[in-house]
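Friendly challenge for the regulars: who can give me the structure tokens for this chain first? No prize, just bragging rights.
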Amino acid sequence: MPSLNGLEATRQILRGNPLQRVLILTVTDAEQLIEEVLKAGARGFVLKADAAKDLTMAVEALQQDRTFFNSRVGELVLNGFLQGGGPASKMQALLPRLTAREREVVQLLVEGKSTKEVAVMLNLSVKTAETHRSNIMRKLGLHCLSELVLYAVRNGIIQIAKPILEEPSAEQLEIAAQAPTPSPTLPSN
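First reply, four minutes later:
Bragging rights claimed.
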């Protein structure tokens, strides 16, 4: 999504229509992300790696007003229930909580947007966007954008997709083989 991640989209969708059923399709099964999407109200969670076998079942489950979670999420929910919140909840208590707006600002900043672009995209004044940025950095105890990027990745605000490495097709190999190789040029004196 160009301006929102799935977690923030879930929050906004359910804020506008609490009866909507949201299915998360993601590349990561990070425990904190799972907790956040469950707290946000998602009714299903499918890993992209499992989409071929799980996506149809997940959509059908949500259509029938049921939930759908893979075994990893089910295990996390059960452990959290049995442990009264579990270790992840204790760790969450140690982390400073960002507001939904602050999370939006973080997402845009770590995606490479300037403070002015953040202001335009979120319909804020530049001064307000700068204040959000300053407050976020202070609240998290961070000093530079690279630290903010690391925080965003570790806390599921943004996701880094694994690159898909494709084998070249026969046509691509043939074109590459036919391309003339540059001959070395010698410097002239």
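The longest helix spans residues 126-140. DSSP finds ten helices and three strands in the chain. Your move, everyone else.
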